[in-house]
Each structure stands twice: as structure tokens, then as C-alpha cells.
Specification:
Elements (H helix, E strand, L loop, with lengths): L4 H14 L22 H8 L10 H13 L4 E7 L4 E6 L1 E5 L3 E5 L10 E3 L2 E6 L2 E5 L19 E2 L4 H23 L10 H20 L8 H17 L12 H18 L2 H8 L6 H46 L3 H42 L4 H6 L10
Antiparallel strand pairs: 1-2, 3-4, 3-8, 5-6, 6-7
């Protein structure tokens, strides 16, 4: 990708300009002035009970809590924390709630869940990554299973995952715009475009055309390229120390699978629906039996997409962090450290391959489902045996 020097200079200038503003995520100026003794009652209740079932009691519990925290979304972007001083280094994100009107404030008011946020006379508390409406004392009215019973406002906040997806979207925009501009200089792209062009040709030649067909593939190339690069870049960012786990979030994978589902259904031709509701050349009794199965099949396809991506990425994160944790839970640090580091590097290399494979498989299956919906069927020729291809039933 070739970017003009002016854009590069302006971008670097903007980055250096905002660096001084990236301070502690729990800045005292933005935090509600609530003393420690007035912290959320739920926190005190858990402390008084020792939070025996949930609070970290040893190294293993601390590691489990850290892994769980890494896999979840967050209302602030924390790069790292100092366990001794209790400070968190990063930046806060905007919280947007719909609760008798629009409530917008900084997540630093929660002080990482340690304090109650007061907004327009309403009080909100952060508990396990979720926001609950409470009172000035922060009482969440926990039940016997330590689950809050108070109301939850409708949360449309810009969380860590949302920021990461916006960043990836902007990055992809600049990548492809740069590639398009490089073609104006000649048939051969320059700069980073030389890396992008083989990947785009690969998706076109190996994914789109074989599955959708040479006549109709161009209509869906934009979606397939977007899904492929979006998932791949997010997977790679998930392996960095930034602590993002976007594709390991079930909500994100559900949304991606729904895009594939709706595109497939709205692009389907009459032959596709005929094979679902009233299969040709099949006895009537079998048609009635197969109809609900085929309807269910239209739902199981996107479900397989979302579960495959979610499970593989989540498992990779858990395995890597568990291997790193071996150094801290083991008794012999000198012996455990080389083993832990070696296994972590080995799994990390495999995860680089998995990051690409999951993006490729999601794109491949999406194109396959779309191709099954838009392909033309020639029942007469099939029945007479004049065609070389047989329909694939999945």
C-alpha cells in the first residue's frame, strides 16, 4: 500500500499528540468521589464472605481469573496492571446506556468496578463486566449464587472489542484504498499492494469462482474479501499482548454468521427454495418428512460457522495462557520455565496457522452456502443423464 507522505506525517503527528492523554484508566479526575467505605456493597459482601466460591485464593485461582478476564470484553482498554500499587495503565472508553434517556459518561467512573458511577442522579455499578443499576451504596442484591438481582440498563457502550473492530475496519479501508490507487500507476501494484494482490487473487480463484460460479462470483467478492481479512486481522491481533479477543466473543461470531445467513437467503433463487420446501423427483411422503429437516438445515449452517470460529479461537487463547501459567504454578521455576516457554512458542506458531485457517474456512463455507443458493439446477438434464455434474447435498 502506498500512502502519501502528507498522510503519514499527519498520522504520526496525531499519535504523538494523543500520547500525553493516554494515562491511567482510573484517573482520579474522572472518578466519582466515593470513599472506600462507600464502595459497592457487593464488593464488601464478597470480601466479608471471603468470596470463597469466586475470589482468587491461590495462584491457580488468580490465573483462572486472569484467563477469564482476558477472554471477556471490557469497558476500558487496559494494557497492563501493577498488582502492587493497584494501578491500571491504559485508557477509558465511553459508556453509553439507555435508561430513561441517554446516559453517556467515561468508564473511569467505575474505577475498574471498585466504585459506583453517579450520572444524573442515577447510580450504576460494574460487576463482572456488566453494568447494573443500583443505589448510592452499590448494593446489587446478590442471590445465593452471587448473581445480581437488580435491573440492567440497555448497554450500547463502545467497549474494547468495538474499538478493536473499528481499528481493523479503518486499517482495511486504508489497505484497499491504497491498493486501488496503486493500480492507477500501472497494472502491477506497488508497496504493500504486492502483498494484498496474491491474497485477493487466491480468494477469487480458489474460493469464490469454484463455489459460486464464474458468472455470479463478482457480486459477492466484496463480502468474501471483507470477511476474510476482517477475521484474519482480528485473529492476529488476538495473539498480541493487547489482550483483545474479538473473534473469541460469541456475539461477534453470531453477527458474522448472520451476515452470511441473510446474504444466502436473500440471494437464493427459486430452485433453492424448491429443494427446501418441495424436493423434485421425491415421493410426496418423503417431501413432507424432509421439509422440516431442510428448513432446520438452513439454520445449522450459520450455526456451524459461528461455533467453529468461536471455539477454535477461544481454545487457542486458553491453551497459550495456560502454558504460560505453568511457570507460576510450578514449584521448580528453573525446570518449568524452559518447558513452558518452548511449548508456548510452539503453540503460538500453530495459532498463527489457525488464525489464517479459521478466516479461510469461514470464507470458504460462506461462499459454498451462497453458491448452493444461487446455482441453477437442470432437472430434466439430470434426469436424462446428460450432465456431467451431480448436485452436492450437504
Amino acid at each position: 500500500m502506498v500512502l502519501p507522505g502528507r498522510i503519514v506525517k499527519n498520522t504520526l503527528t496525531a499519535l504523538f499528540a494523543v500520547v500525553p492523554f493516554i494515562t491511567f484508566a482510573n484517573s482520579a479526575n474522572d472518578t466519582v468521589q466515593v470513599s472506600v467505605e462507600h464502595a459497592p456493597a457487593a464488593i464488601h459482601a464478597e470480601a466479608e464472605h471471603g468470596h470463597a466460591e469466586h475470589a482468587p485464593a491461590g495462584k491457580k485461582d488468580v490465573i483462572d481469573a486472569y484467563i477469564e478476564h482476558h477472554l471477556q470484553d471490557a469497558h476500558d482498554f487496559t494494557f497492563f496492571s501493577d498488582s502492587e500499587t493497584g494501578k491500571h495503565y491504559g485508557f477509558s472508553l465511553p459508556v453509553i446506556l439507555i435508561d430513561n434517556g441517554l446516559k453517556i459518561f467515561s468508564s473511569s467512573k467505575f474505577h475498574h468496578g471498585e466504585k459506583v458511577a453517579e450520572v444524573d442522579g442515577n447510580y450504576y455499578a460494574l460487576h463482572h463486566g456488566k453494568i447494573y443499576k443500583t443505589d448510592a451504596t452499590g448494593d446489587l442484591k446478590l442471590d445465593e449464587h452471587h448473581h445480581p438481582t437488580v435491573a440492567m440498563p440497555f448497554d450500547i457502550s463502545i467497549t474494547k472489542n468495538v474499538v478493536t473492530m473499528l481499528f481493523v475496519s479503518a486499517l482495511m479501508f486504508f489497505m484497499f484504498v491504497g491498493l486501488a490507487k496503486s493500480y492507477k500507476k500501472g497494472p502491477i501494484p506497488t508497496g504493500f499492494g504486492r502483498v494484498l494482490e496474491p491474497l485477493i487473487i487466491f480468494i477469487r480463484e480458489e474460493v469464490a469462482i469454484p463455489n459460486i460460479g464464474e458468472k455470479k462470483y463478482r457480486k459477492y467478492m466484496g463480502f468474501l474479501l471483507t470477511v476474510f481479512f476482517f477475521i484474519w486481522i482480528l485473529n492476529l491481533l488476538g495473539m498480541t499482548p493487547l489482550g483483545v479477543n474479538v473473534t473469541g466473543n460469541i456475539s461477534v461470531t453470531v453477527c458474522l454468521a448472520l451476515f452470511t445467513y441473510f446474504i444466502t437467503q436473500f440471494s437464493a433463487n427459486k430452485d433453492y427454495w424448491k429443494h427446501i420446501f418441495w424436493m423434485p423427483d421425491v415421493p410426496v411422503a418423503m417431501k413432507i418428512v424432509l421439509m422440516p429437516i431442510e428448513i432446520l438445515g438452513t439454520l445449522t449452517k450459520p450455526f456451524a460457522l459461528l461455533i467453529r470460529l468461536f471455539a477454535n479461537i477461544t481454545a487457542g487463547h486458553v491453551v497459550i495462557m495456560s502454558l504460560i501459567a505453568m511457570m507460576f504454578v510450578g514449584k521448580n521455576l528453573a525446570a518449568d520455565m524452559p518447558i513452558s516457554i518452548g511449548l508456548t512458542l510452539f503453540i503460538s506458531v500453530i495459532e498463527l496457522l489457525v488464525a489464517f485457517l479459521q478466516a479461510f474456512i469461514f470464507t470458504m463455507l460462506s461462499s459454498l452456502f451462497i453458491g448452493m443458493a444461487v446455482q441453477e439446477h437442470h432437472h430434466e438434464e439430470d434426469h436424462d443423464g446428460h450432465t456431467d455434474e451431480e448436485p452436492i447435498i450437504i
